[in-house]
Amino acid sequence: MPIDVVLAGLFVFFTTSLGAFLALIFKKFPEVGLDTSLAFSGGIMLVASFTSLILPSIDNGNVYISMFGIVLGFFVIYLIGKLIPHEEKFLKYNSSNEYKGKVRNIILLALAIIIHNLPEGLAVGVSMVNDVNKGWATAIAIGIQDIPEGLAVALPLIFLSNRVLLPLSIGVLSGFSEFVFAVIGGVSFSIMHFLLPLGLAFAGGAMIYVTVKEVFPQVYSSGKNEGYITIGFLIGVLVMLFLDTALG
Ligand SMILES: [Zn+2]
């Protein structure tokens, strides 16, 4: 197991960084493309919360433990969001000049990314402890949806900072934080195996919360291209369902 956790962690680290690199190539990525691919991420996250985390949690424990874990996941991410003031709009492509030079916002963005990456990294690690095949299905799905997320992190920063190295570093750092959370989740729940049902549900609840509170409001916030965005979401749902069946 531990080697799989590390490899899966490295995989999501790599795909998030890849997304950040893509931002350097596609400096003029159209907003509709970014919103649609982020909605695709949201579809994967929502389905993965259930197939990789909550349903296995019920199988390993029972529905009450699972419900408690989900509540805990919501509560902890809510609390982190309250303690760390973060600017949600920065996960999205924003080319306006009004934010230029605001270093504070870059720090806020970095913190927002950590909130987002905590459940995803944890999901990969905890899911791997539960079942290696399901763990890899989760890692591949999370990895795929990390590409648009890495892109979404780096793009606004290119406009904010007018630099290349900083957006790239923050993108890579966000991937690294996912790796760290994957290893933390993997190691701690292999040691405390009896807490695995709770850990699975916790990661699932946290991911649902992030999807509903951070991803969906952002992709629909422009009020434009709703059709494309919804199709992106639908494809994400189908891809995760397929990966879970084919690999899990
Ligand atoms: Zn995500």
Short description:
With 248 residues, the chain is mainly α. The chain contains eight helices and no strands.
Write up this protein.
With about 250 residues, the protein is mostly helical. It has one domain. The protein has 8 helices and no strands. The chain binds zinc ion. Zinc ion binds near residues 45 and 120.
Summary tags:
248 residues, mainly alpha, 0% strand, binds zinc ion
Which structural class best describes the helix and strand composition?
mainly alpha
- The total of helices stands at 8
Q: Could you tell me the mean pLDDT?
A: 85
End-to-end gap: 16 Å
Instruction: Give the proportion of residues in helices.
Output: over 70%
Largest sheet: none
The succession of helices and strands, N to C, reads: HHHHHHHH
Secondary-structure blueprint:
Blueprint: H1 2-25, H2 31-60, H3 63-83, H4 103-130, H5 132-161, H6 165-191, H7 196-220, H8 226-247
This protein binds zinc ion.
